[in-house]
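Worked example 3 (structure in, sequence out).
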């Protein structure tokens, strides 16, 4: 029997039959296993933060997957476009009781269950205040258009743009004379 997850694999607010790519709720809760590579988890976490707008990631691992979780938590801050001081990491250790089903060689005997404990590690990474930002994509997966003046804006707004560009300062490095 697989051990129970610390949270449901599909949030109760989302249909379980919807493809994973169409879901937005619960994407920031990730269970780490040894079956998936570090690069895949890094890409998934980066997408959750940048594309879906989550500012809190909850990463969980159990047993042999704990070293992979530690690697992931150390590898994520450098690839995210935030200052290291903006990312707060909270680490929680624990123990989970699991049951193994022992199937006997003889078909006449009933299977037995053996109980044991496994180590767990939960890492919560918060960026800034941890509040989710508005998503940059709409429900169809396409990026939202930026709101701005229409292409056929009046001549008055183009005059303001010219004045603004004229007021911009241009910095230039002075020429250096190299004497031999």
């Amino acid at each position: 029997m697989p051990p129970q997850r610390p949270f449901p694999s599909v949030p109760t607010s989302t249909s379980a039959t919807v493809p994973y790519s169409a879901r937005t709720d619960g994407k920031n809760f990730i269970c780490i296993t040894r079956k998936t590579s570090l690069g895949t988890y890094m890409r998934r976490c980066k997408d959750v933060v940048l594309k879906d707008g989550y500012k809190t990631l909850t990463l969980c691992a159990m047993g042999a997957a704990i070293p992979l979780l530690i690697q992931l938590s150390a590898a994520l801050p450098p690839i995210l476009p935030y200052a290291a001081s903006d990312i707060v990491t909270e680490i929680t250790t624990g123990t989970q009781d699991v049951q193994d089903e022992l199937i006997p060689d003889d078909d006449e005997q009933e299977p037995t269950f053996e109980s044991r404990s496994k180590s767990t590690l939960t890492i919560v990474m918060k960026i800034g205040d941890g509040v989710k930002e508005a998503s940059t994509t709409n429900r169809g997966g396409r990026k939202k258009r930026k709101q701005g003046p229409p292409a056929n804006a009046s001549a008055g707004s183009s005059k303001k743009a010219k004045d603004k560009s004229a007021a911009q300062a241009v910095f230039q490095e002075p020429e250096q004379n190299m004497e031999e």
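Notes: The radius of gyration is 26 Å. Confidence is low (pLDDT under 50) at residues 138-142, 148-155, 157-167.
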